[in-house]
Amino acid sequence: MSTEPSSLAGARSVSSLPRFVQPELATLVDRAPSGGGWLHEVKFDGYRALARIENGSVEIYSRNDKDWTSHYQVLAEELAKLPVENAMLDGEVVAQLPDGTTSFQALVDVLGRDGRGTRRGGHGQLLYYVFDLMYLNGFELFGVTIEERKVLLKHLLSQQPEGGRILFSDHVVGGGENLISQACALGLEGIVSKKSGAPYRPGVRGSEWVKTKCRHEQEFVIGGFTDPGGARVGFGALLLGVNGAGGLRYVGKVGTGFNDRLLRRLGERLRALEVDLPPFAADLERAPKGVHWVRPVLVAEVSFAEWTRAGGVRHPSFKGLREDKPAGTVVAEE
């Protein structure tokens, strides 16, 4: 396959690079697609990030068009050295621990320490796994097949020194059932499967990109909290909800997955958001009594065993705050 965008079917010459593009999103499915017509990638436990490069200047945006360049400065510095006139990349920012695994909570901690993606003490390294290429050197690549886009992307990233923070997210063709089993056995979050020959569809959550998770995990809106008990600090548990046709629906509370430092910091933020009336419009009768209500603006990433028949979550555990996701977009991924 060619490494020149001008020679690829579907590539379109453009006069300028857009400031931002809504990324394509994956639909949650119960089983990984079978057959050889799919490209399967690791599902990373991090923040979606789109990198815009033009004449050595780099801007990095969240999937909801928030400028996070200052948070990812160490990544922006490496991206600026790529040998391109202009480009737009799509990928995931993660925090890699010393044992090689990634951790969402470590990512939150890394970004919260000094704003440069480095954490004192060596407990997390910021990396950018890039899995797609939307623009390159004056050409829009939406109409180019995913295989050809990834060839271009791999060639581009191969021109940087080894050992850097900007990494190519490789894939496996076919064998989705076996790959998800292996991913789960290794403790990974899951896989993302992309239809062979697919174009890039900005802003679409369709059937050509699907995700299969090893465990139930999604975002929830924080609508309240309970008081801490015993020697616990900060707060006891968070009250969680999802948006629906009738407003914010209560789904349960989560009280595990926190350390003392996080309990104190998040507790301070919650108290500043306290309100008199509950934000939940549905299933409020299942919420505990004597709690503190808050404005529903914070979003929590939570893993859990399963959805109950009543629409609640069983055995939830807190993973971190999703500073990149507006509370109004959070719905149940059932």
Plain-language structure description:
The chain has 334 residues and is an alpha+beta fold. The protein folds into two domains: 5-213, DNA ligase/mRNA capping enzyme (D-amino Acid Aminotransferase, Chain A, domain 1); 216-329, Beta Barrel (OB fold (Dihydrolipoamide Acetyltransferase, E2P)). The protein has helices spanning 73-79, 104-113, 146-157, 176-185, 260-272; strands at residues 12-13, 25-28, 38-42, 47-54, 57-61, 86-96, 125-136, 139-140, 166-168, 172-173, 190-195, 205-213, 216-225, 238-244, 247-254, 274-275, 292-294, 299-304, 306-307, 313-314, 317-321. The strands form four sheets. Strands 1, 4, 5, 6, 7, 8 and 9 form a seven-stranded mixed beta sheet that branches. Strands 13, 14, 15, 16, 17, 18 and 21 form a seven-stranded antiparallel beta sheet that branches. The protein starts with 11 loop residues before the first strand and ends in a 13-residue tail after the last strand.
Write the layout of secondary structure elements.
Elements: E1 12-13, E2 25-28, E3 38-42, E4 47-54, E5 57-61, H1 73-79, E6 86-96, H2 104-113, E7 125-136, E8 139-140, H3 146-157, E9 166-168, E10 172-173, H4 176-185, E11 190-195, E12 205-213, E13 216-225, E14 238-244, E15 247-254, H5 260-272, E16 274-275, E17 292-294, E18 299-304, E19 306-307, E20 313-314, E21 317-321
Parallel strand pairs: 2-12, 7-9
Antiparallel strand pairs: 1-8, 3-10, 3-11, 4-5, 4-6, 6-7, 7-8, 11-12, 13-14, 13-17, 13-18, 14-15, 16-17, 18-21, 19-20
